[in-house]
Amino acid sequence: MASNPASATRQGTTLVFSGVLDRAAAVALWPSVQASTGVQVLDLDAVPRVDSAGLALLAELAARLRAQGTEPRFNGAPAGFNELAAAYRLAPSLDFNASTAAS
Question: What are 43-102's pLDDT values in tens digits?
């Protein structure tokens, strides 16, 4: 069974992800998404699932956006997203230091 490679496409202030966000995708996508100045929304509606490496990519990207003064919003929650975020005690915004992070 062939799988579609993950991708990230900029649409205005939205970064639209598609495909499975796993370790291979995180490695492949990081060079193109790390300088996402001006992004306000991370759209995950076309992502069927995410693993810990994919979540790390999203968390680091969200942290960089917060450092630029933007609180990113997430559209969609693929399989694994909420469970992994809870396991790593991340807030829904994927911010570890947020006051809403699980204790």
Answer: 999 999 999 999 999 999 999 999 999 999 999 999 999 999 999 999 988 997 655 444
Nearest to 13 by CA among 29, 36, 32: 36
- For residue 49, how many C-alpha atoms fall within 13 Å in the half-sphere facing its CB? 8
| pTM for the structure as a whole | 0.89
Determine the Cα–Cα distance for residues 30 and 48; give it in Å rounded to an integer. Answer: 19
What's the distance, Cα to Cα, between the start and end of the chain in Å? 41
**CATH level 2 (architecture), domain 7-87:** 2-Layer Sandwich (3.30)
Judged by DSSP in three states, 19 sits in coil
Contact by Cβ (8 Å): 57, 87: no
